[in-house]
Amino acid sequence: MRTSIPSPDPSWASWSIGPLTVHAYALCLLAGIVAAVWLTSRRLTARGGHEGAVVDIAMWAVPLGIVGARVYHVLTHWGDYVGPGHDLVHVLYVWEGGIAVFGSLLGGAVGAWIGCRRAGIRLWSFADALAPAMLLAQAIGRLGNWFNHELFGRATTLPWGLEIPSSNPAFPADLPDGTLFHPLFLYEALWNLVGIAVILRLEKRFGLRWGRAFGLYLVWYGTARVWLEALRIDPTSVTPLGLPANVWGALAAVALGVGIVVVQGRRHPEPEPSVYVPGREPVATDLPA
Q1: Numbered residues of the known binding site
Q2: pLDDT (tens digit, 9 = 90+) per residue, 40-50?
């Protein structure tokens, strides 16, 4: 008897509540963002940050992260939005899927830099607190790909193969109906959950601060994306050496992560004194008698 992972009914992807249309993909993204803010806040507060600091930073990082994620996706899938038969307005339809983590890192980094400057928090301190929370957000957000019937890989006969209807635009024309595919969204989600445990363990053992925990996150996530991208079959933009743009992005993330761990480890062998920028520490007020 063949086992497999079923895809949800297409009606689950969105539903109407009065005049509003609710998209499962968007709900997964929002749930991931909320979980990341919660975990990052707990971690930064435990290190001396003030209550509400992460929310203040997130007000800048989240919107710019979403914009960066969408821009990166559109630029690397330009043919899906521009040209005959395409309506450019679909560039704005984020709920239909199509955001790139590497773009969110770039846009989110700009937003985090702005937010940290306003809150008086060291950017590296915030990044370290964020590192495992990013993996948690990405693991939750990947469920949205399941609802949208996307992010699946090559055909497989493994018992956890994903069912994809042959009506899916990305279904290979040369494969028969009923073919199962690698559930790449699930592979990434599980990899991210394991990564949370790895970062927390190594952080406790080696005291990863000054950005080194975030560097480890980049290495962990980028490594997974290199081999996951090799399993993808949906069209992606091809760049020099015949590699998809996302593979280059993943390799860049790994290289940057290694650089952060090595350079920051040499520059700051001492423990992190405070999560605050010098001179921006909050001043304790006298409590009423």
Answers
A1: 142
A2: 999 999 999 99
